Amino acid sequence: MQNRIRRSITVAVVAAALVAGVATASPAVSAPSVVSGESGVVAVKVPANQKGAYPLYGLKAAAMVYVEPVERGFTRHIALYGTDKVPAKVGPVRSIRETDFNVLDAFGKVRLYASGHTESRKIMDDFLASTKHVLRTSDDGAEEIFVIKKCVEPFCHFLKGTSVPGRNTGLSMSNKDILKKAGLVAGTIPARVINTGKAIRWLSIEYKKTPFSTMIPRSIAWDAKKKVWIYSASGRNASIDVVNGKTVSGTTSSPTAIIQFSSAKNAGSAFACRSMPDGGPDAVPYTNSVGKGSGLLMRSGKIFNITWSRTSSTSPTSYKFSNGSSVKTLGQPWVFLVPTNLTKSTIRYASGAKSAFVPKAPTPRWSFSTTVLKERKACEAPVKITVTKNKTKKTTVIKVGTKFDSLSTVNLKGAKVTVKVTGKGYLNKVTSTKTGELVITGDPSKVVSVTFAGQVIKLQHYASAQWGN
Predict the structure, then answer these.
(1) Which of 50, 146, 211, 422 has its CA 20 to 30 A from that of 88?
(2) Which residues are registered as beta bridge partners of 367?
(3) Strand pairing of 302-310 and 198-208?
């Protein structure tokens, strides 16, 4: 079971005509089917910030988009669609986080698409046991997810929206109802509120790269000609969408942005020694979306002070202007979940004045540990020994690998091991400080066991492991 969880299966089932550069299809492992009780909402996890992720595909067709912080100061999108409105290509598709579940609970039983690169898959399945959402990932061999050849790992997985089950069957929530479930409604800003708005050029939100002090930026800039906000992550905003049957290159943008000031606490992670959601050394933020706090509505080049409140994860969020009237949106809303204990915000007004924005503390006011680096080094990371024997070359290559704090296996350099060789007894060896490999020459059949005793390498504790007898 554990090996299956830790294995990323790549499945490609999309015809080459869909998009240039699609890899050759593999046999389907998991055929799609509608699950009883689905609400007709499809959620797709889409990355941000990192260069290899761009351009982003298919976001303009979403009813709305949530933006959440993840580890290392980056952010990630949750794009929500009615089943019938998922584009032919959405992505790249990336993995889920604990923040997602409370957000998605408001929309009923959601079909959630994510990549299979998460080591915490078993724990996420346990969350699904209570939330009842339908998780489809490349790790399951979901045939709705395909891979492309020309890509930068791990941004190679995409969703073929036309393969999502339930299309054209009546199982598709309308954009209006999706917004209603979120607590939003389209309309005109009341006359008694419109004059309270302040004209701005841009709003910058910087997310702390815990446990370090580097700040990773996202910006929301007003485009007066197009009447939209341009959303950039680390300066990147390239997007590709199909509009009226034509492929259009553009930017991640929309007419309405909502900044929901909240708080975050430490979530667990794939690389933690303790399970989620109690906390973990990888400094993954779990951002709260249940409670109450302040926020901003961004429309027509202006910002308006608002409040938000939500009584439970299955309830919609109530967004209000300062006078108590309901917030009104235009077009596709983007909702930014902004934990004030991990971010700082700066506004550039239309007048040219620039100032830091300090919102009121939300309720509950979670705390986030910034000592996680110290905690991580005290944690005993798991390792696995691999031994490759070559009878022709008469060599045995030994590696001590770990996936602790990494998406792929990394060889430990300078790892001390004890190798049992028939006729020579126990030999104390050290893996290469350059490659992390240890090569034993001679008859490979005489290498019968390799032992890695628990030790500290570059201040990190690693657990014991053994191969062979």
Answers:
(1) 50
(2) none
(3) antiparallel
**∠ Cα 344 345 347 (to 5°):** 155
> Strand pairing partners for 9?
none
Measured CA angle at 327 (ends 325, 332), to 5 deg: 165
Tell me the C-alpha distance between 432 and 289, whole Å.
Answer: 47
| φ, ψ of residue 417 in degrees (nearest 5) | -135, 155
Render pLDDT for 176-188 as a digit per residue (tens, 0 to 9). Answer: 999 999 999 999 9
- Nearest CA to 450 out of 436, 458, 440 is that of 440
Where residue 406 falls among pLDDT bands split at 50, 70, 90? low
Q: Which domains does the chain have, with CATH numbers?
A: 1-372 (3.50.90.10), 379-468 (2.60.40)
Whether residue 172 is predicted with pLDDT greater than 90 in this model: the reply is yes
Other CB atoms within a 10 A radius of the CB of residue 18 amount to 14
Specify whether the CB–CB gap between 383 and 462 falls below 8 A.
Answer: yes
Give the integer Cα–Cα distance in Å for 291 and 445.
Answer: 63
Spatial contact of 170 and 84, defined as CB atoms under 8 Å apart: no
And the tokens for 304?
């308006």
Determine whether 291 is exposed, middle or buried from the number of CB atoms within 10 Å of its CB (0-12, 13-18, 19+): middle
91-105, 151-165, 268-282, 348-362, range with the lowest pLDDT: 268-282
| Residue in the block written with tokens 């007894």 | 425
pLDDT at residue 3 in the model: 36
DSSP one-letter code for 416: E
Higher pLDDT, 32 or 345: 345
- Are 40 and 172 within 8 A, CB to CB? yes
Q: Are 432 and 412 in contact (CB under 8 A)?
A: no
- What pLDDT shows up at residue 390? 96
Work out the average pLDDT over 431-458.
95
- The overall longest dimension of the chain from CA atoms, in Å, is 91
Q: Which residues pair with 145 in a beta bridge?
A: 159
What does residue 124 show for φ and ψ, rounded to 5 degrees?
A: -65, -35
Residues 308-323 have pLDDT tens digits of 999 999 999 999 999 9
- Give the list of residues 6+ apart from residue 94 with CB closer than 8 angstroms, or none: 45, 46, 47, 53, 76, 114, 115, 117, 154, 155, 157
Query: Percentage of the chain surpassing pLDDT 70?
Result: 84
Q: What is the DSSP letter of 59?
A: G
Tokens (6 digits) for 24: 């050759």
> What is the pTM for the complete model shown?
0.76
Cα torsion angle, 228, 233, 236, 237, sign: negative
